[in-house]
């Protein structure tokens, strides 16, 4: 059923795109041949759901002005089919509108249908319901689901079944007779006529698996993504330009910058886990749609220089003389058209400036901890895996149980109370005993599993223990680069999260008590989520308090609301959330995304472009919040009375949230 509906959707999309194409596309060893003309193509990744539709045309035009010939995007299955057979192509999901804007700009489109996309996107683009299709195994040769992307490493993990699956995918794709070539990135044994391509920081070492296929670089990484608790990554444009020039020199004819504009992980689309809401990626066009200088102009000049001799590059072989010691000499240049290490453009310095727009009429609503024992729950013996219960309907799952304490326990008559210990498989945990907040614990990208342990104030009789387990993005997959593992690994759909135990009490008269196998109740999400409290039409569903927010700043699980008017001007906008802890934020019912004021740890020791680049190099922002500002698309705002809703998990001062505007200074 999943496979059939997916093919139907794919064919609809391909048919609509074929109406736009009206051209012949083939290839030979020197490059793609479009309408009989061989050419070098520069492309840039811009993911349509990571920006608002009102930004699309401007982003595409900036890409064209920067010397690009094509736009690259994935297709995000879990956006378009959130439940089986129910499709969504509205708003940021309007793929066809995005494609038509690319055509309007006179550019080509490189469509990566996935539907597995990786991309630091929640569950790698798979809808969570796919995990529960009978007989499913992700990313191998099984009937319930097939179609792939970035499969090389995963294919090896599955052995013969992986190779069979890859071959099936290639045959299926070619059989659709779309009239354009198909590529498989990171797939060394891609069968004819599919073109295998390279992804990475450098691809000058790469050669396709057949001498008659073109040399293509489908992901030239312009920077790197951020994780909550990690530093900000920068890739010097001198190094990126050198890598691209070297690739062209070695016979490359297609380069796609990943990302050219990274954008924003709105809502709960960020995967990982722990991927930030910002997906800026140090791209030539920043998260807010502004050119990042000198990266944007330096690459533009590189593209112009290469295209000056593009005809010769794709129609003749360079004269190369081996000098020994891994050194080569190519045909001398009489005139230097471009030097990858020489900057001609000024550097842009982003500034987040106050708009002086006041947040009016702050009010708050506190979640009732005991409401986790409400009607919408299930009760079983033992601890359940989180995703199997929530099906990703919410980041939050309540685990609640009761603990009987004898009046004769020694700690009740003086001394320290027993220690509650909770082992979690990730990603965050907030603990309450008898309705009072005891504390929190968090995992990291490197160590998703963690243990919460703290002395608790138990009393004689029945005590309640409520554990709020929090998801911070579902796993994606592996993008292995040397010793660094990007996201998750093999069979990521089988990975567990939530409170899997053991959950124990230490320090009782009769030793340690294991609570893991006793009766637990489960409730998905918060009350505010259940009633859509972030929606303008539902805010009257609860009684809001008008007490000063400062008095409520350390209260966990608090909803806050305020109103503000749209500022004048057209500068990009953001919310400064540095006064808050961790949670989610909405404007006029639309989710900005997850926020988390967690401080960056890394190796922030300056940056030079010389030498090989890796994501551990040129880090910035250590000791500061990984993300402080959260993009607010202007198209989401009304002239007046814009509703801001914040759900704070651990405590913060909402009265200090401010709306800022982004501008650029040049040095």
From TrEMBL:
Its EC number is 3.2.1.23. InterPro entries: BetaGal_gal-bd, Galactose-bd-like_sf, GH, Gly_Hdrlase_35_cat, Glycoside_Hdrlase_35. Coiled coil: none annotated. Residues 1-23 form the signal peptide. Keywords: Glycosidase, Hydrolase, Signal. It is an enzyme of class 3 (hydrolase). Belongs to the glycosyl hydrolase 35 family. One of its GO terms (molecular function) is beta-galactosidase activity. Residues 32-146 form the Glycoside hydrolase 35 catalytic domain. GO terms for biological process: carbohydrate metabolic process. Residues 396-461, 557-642 form the Beta-galactosidase galactose-binding domain. It comes from Salvia splendens (Scarlet sage). The keyword Ion transport does not apply. It catalyses: Hydrolysis of terminal non-reducing beta-D-galactose residues in beta-D-galactosides. This is beta-galactosidase. Pfam families: BetaGal_gal-bd, Glyco_hydro_35.
């Amino acid at each position: 059923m999943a496979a059939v509906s997916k093919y139907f959707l794919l064919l609809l999309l391909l048919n609509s795109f074929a109406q736009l194409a009206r051209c012949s596309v083939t290839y030979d060893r020197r490059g793609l041949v479009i309408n009989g003309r061989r050419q070098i193509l520069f492309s840039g990744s811009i993911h349509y759901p990571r920006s608002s539709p009102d930004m699309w045309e401007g982003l595409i035009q900036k890409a064209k002005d920067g010397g690009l010939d094509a736009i690259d995007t994935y297709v995000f299955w879990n956006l378009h089919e959130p439940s089986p057979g129910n499709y969504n192509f509205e708003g940021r999901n309007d793929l066809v509108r995005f494609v038509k804007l690319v055509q309007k700009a006179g550019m080509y489109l490189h469509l990566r249908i996935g539907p597995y996309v990786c991309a630091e996107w929640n569950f790698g683009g798979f809808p969570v319901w796919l995990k529960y299709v009978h007989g499913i195994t992700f990313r191998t040769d099984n009937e319930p689901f097939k179609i792939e992307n970035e499969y090389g490493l995963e294919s090896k993990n599955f052995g013969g079944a992986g190779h069979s699956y890859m071959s099936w995918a290639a045959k299926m794709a070619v059989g659709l007779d779309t009239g354009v070539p198909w590529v498989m990135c990171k797939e060394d044994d891609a069968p004819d006529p599919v073109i295998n391509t390279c992804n990475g920081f450098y691809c000058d070492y790469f050669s396709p698996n057949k001498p008659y296929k073109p040399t293509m670089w489908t992901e030239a990484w312009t920077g790197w993504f951020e994780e909550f608790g990690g530093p900000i990554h920068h890739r010097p444009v001198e190094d990126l330009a050198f890598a691209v020039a070297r690739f062209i020199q070695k016979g490359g004819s297609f380069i796609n910058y990943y990302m050219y504009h990274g954008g924003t992980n709105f809502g709960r689309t960020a995967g990982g886990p722990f991927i930030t809401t910002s997906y800026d990626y140090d791209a030539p066009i920043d998260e807010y749609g502004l050119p990042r200088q000198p990266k944007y102009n330096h690459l533009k000049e590189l593209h112009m220089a290469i295209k000056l001799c593009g005809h010769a590059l794709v129609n003749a072989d360079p004269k190369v003389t081996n000098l020994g010691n891994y050194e080569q000499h190519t045909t001398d240049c009489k005139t230097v058209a471009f030097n990858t290490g020489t900057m001609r453009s000024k550097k842009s310095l982003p500034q987040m400036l106050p708009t002086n727009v006041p947040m009016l009429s702050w009010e708050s609503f506190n979640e009732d901890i005991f409401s986790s024992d409400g009607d919408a729950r299930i009760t079983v013996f033992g601890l359940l895996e989180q995703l199997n219960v929530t099906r990703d309907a919410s980041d939050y799952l309540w685990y609640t149980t009761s603990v009987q304490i004898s009046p004769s326990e020694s700690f009740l008559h003086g001394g320290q109370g027993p220690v509650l210990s909770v082992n979690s498989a990730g990603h965050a945990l907030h603990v309450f005993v008898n309705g009072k907040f005891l504390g929190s614990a968090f995992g990291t990208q490197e160590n998703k599993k963690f243990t919460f342990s703290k002395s608790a104030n138990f009393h004689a009789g029945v005590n309640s223990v409520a554990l709020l387990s929090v998801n911070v993005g579902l796993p994606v997959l592996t993008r292995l680069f040397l010793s660094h593992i990007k996201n998750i690994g093999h069979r990521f759909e089988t990975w567990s999260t939530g409170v899997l135990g053991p959950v124990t009490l230490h320090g009782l008269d009769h030793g340690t008590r294991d609570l893991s196998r006793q009766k637990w109740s489960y409730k998905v999400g918060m009350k505010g989520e259940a009633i859509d409290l972030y929606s303008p039409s539902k805010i009257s569903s609860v009684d809001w308090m008008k007490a000063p927010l400062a008095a409520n700043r350390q209260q966990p699980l608090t909803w806050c609301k305020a109103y503000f008017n749209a500022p004048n001007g057209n500068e990009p906008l953001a919310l400064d959330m540095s006064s808050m802890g961790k949670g989610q934020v909405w404007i006029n019912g639309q989710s900005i995304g997850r926020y988390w004021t967690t401080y960056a740890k890394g190796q922030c020791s300056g940056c030079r472009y010389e030498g090989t680049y890796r994501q551990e190099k040129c880090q910035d922002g250590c000791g500061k919040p990984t993300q402080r500002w959260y993009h607010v698309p202007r198209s989401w705002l009304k002239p007046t009375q814009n509703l801001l809703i914040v759900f704070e998990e651990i405590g913060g001062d909402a009265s200090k949230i401010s709306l800022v505007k982004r501008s650029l200074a040049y040095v």
